[in-house]
Amino acid sequence: MKHAFNLTGKVAVVTGGTRGIGQGIALGLADAGANIVLLQRSTDTNTQEKIKRLGVRCEIVQCDLENLDEVKQAIPKAIEAMGSVDILVNNAGIQRRSPAVDFSEQDWDDVLTVNLKSVWLLCQQAGRHMLEKNSGKIINIASLVSFQGGVYVPAYASAKGAVGQLTKALANEWSSKGINVNAIVPGYIATEMNTALIEDPVRSRQILERIPTGRWGNPEDFKGPAVFLASDASNYVHGHLLAVDGGWLGR
Ligand code: NAP
Predict the structure, then answer these.
(1) Between helices 20-31 and 223-230, what is the axis angle to 10°?
(2) What is the CA(177)–ligand 1 centre distance, in A?
(3) Whether residue 1 has pLDDT greater than 90
(4) 156 among known catalytic residues
(5) pLDDT at residue 160 above 90?
């Protein structure tokens, strides 16, 4: 079984790996042997340095996911840098919170662009490349609000609901062609995205009380699930939304 989880020689593209869940996933894939392309908007080398210390290659391809021209060039640039792309992790995401009646059109467009349209375009580009070699793994990062409505997050819930459906739609098309498309569903994870919730003592307590494991998740919790979905160990797993939520959805 060790071989089934081994990613030596594979190339994984990870969006939003500068911190949080994406950094945890990138480090997990690198620890399993994958070379990593970090698709990120900044020149920050913090994650790149951590990955290189694990003994694999790591290149940064700069890409602002709000800029769709840059998004369309991203996978070709990654292929140019590494020769191939075997794994795509669409992790980057943004959050905007507001009651629906006050939610601005700009916030709606920003969230839908980063959390859905860029995901679709990267899946499409990577899919074209993976179809040529009849092999590939795509992991999208969905959310509890792929199933639930959330509170004050209408754009985010709409985008993440669609990410779940996009995952299944692409799996239906590509599963017979050697490509696995699946999603990870994070529960409540202690990252910058949740600063507002963590700092709100009432919401923070309410959330914690509802998590069966009794703790918030952390980026380390995503290493194993990501390696599983990126590796041969999951070859017959298609269109699945894998909750990594401390039991939240089952409660
Ligand atoms: P985070 O700590 O806020 O990190 C977000 C990442 O996305 C950062 O690397 C950020 O890069 C990148 N990003 C944002 N906008 C970008 C853009 N326009 N172009 C390129 N990169 C961009 O968030 P997180 O909690 O780790 O979330 C990661 C994923 O998990 C997201 O899809 C999120 O929706 C999902 N998720 C999180 C939770 C949770 O509880 N935390 C729950 C469910 C789902 P910069 O460093 O450049 O800002």
Answers:
(1) 60
(2) 30
(3) no
(4) yes
(5) yes
Atom in ligand 1 nearest the alpha carbon of residue 65: 19
- What tokens appear for 218 in the block? 């952390």
Structure confidence at residue 2 (pLDDT) = 82
Look-up of token digits 């030596």 = 8
Task: Give 70-128 pLDDT, tens digit per residue.
Answer: 999 999 999 999 999 999 999 999 999 999 999 999 999 999 999 999 999 999 999 99
Look at phi and psi of residue 96 and say left if phi exceeds 0, alpha if psi is from -120 to 50, else beta: beta
Top mutation candidate among 14, 37, 38, 40 for ligand 1, by most atoms within 8 Å of CB: 40
**Rounded distance from Cα 132 to ligand 1 centre (Å):** 30
**How far, CA to CA in Å, does 250 sit from each of 163, 187, 212, 247?**
21, 11, 9, 6
Q: Two tokens at 96? A: 């905007």
Question: In this structure, what token pair is assigned to residue 48?
Answer: 């790149």
